[in-house]
Amino acid sequence: MDVRPLNGDDWQLKRDLRLAALKDSPSAFASTYAREEHRSEHEWRDWPHPGAYFCAFGDDGDPLGIAGSWVSTAEPDVTHLISMWVTPGARGRRVAAALVDAVAGWAGEYGSAVVELEVAAGNDAAMTAYLRCGFEVTDREPFTVGGTVLVRRLPGL
């Protein structure tokens, strides 16, 4: 498996994978297919900003999953892990762990102290995967009803 950041020139792949994720797992995200399907090329090229978007590829070059990182200007020491999704056929193969590591590596280089994310209510598979990747449950108020906020502290900070 190879994990690499997607750049603006990869906007169509970024778009296609994000929309596939929203179709496959609509309750897992704070957005919807209908809200994102009409984004412009410019918006896909620039998203997420500031941040990075990663894709895991199998040995055959097929995409296996995606994850994004985003930093709010209000909290520059916190990188938010967003838009994590693993294709149905690649689940259970440690793709999520590889994507989390890519986001955590980017966050450390960016200067963040922690990586934070929110798991939607009922998404037990994601919760298990994130806990296995070193995230801890916090008492921070989630953005979505019933969600859970998790945090992973980065080494050396």
Question: Secondary structure elements and their pairing?
Answer:
Layout: E1 2-6, H1 11-24, H2 33-36, H3 41-46, E2 51-57, E3 63-71, E4 78-86, H4 95-110, E5 114-119, H5 124-132, E6 136-137, E7 148-153
Parallel strand pairs: 4-5
Antiparallel strand pairs: 1-2, 2-3, 3-4, 5-7, 6-7
Task: Summarize this structure as a short list of keywords or feature phrases.
globular, alpha+beta, single chain, 7-stranded mixed β-sheet, 7 strands
Task: Give a verbal description of the structure.
The protein is 31% helix and 28% strand. It is α+β, with helices and mostly antiparallel strands. A seven-stranded mixed β-sheet has the order 1-2-3-4-5-7-6, sandwiched between helices. A hairpin with a 6-residue loop joins strand 3 (63-71) and strand 4. It starts with a strand and ends with a strand.
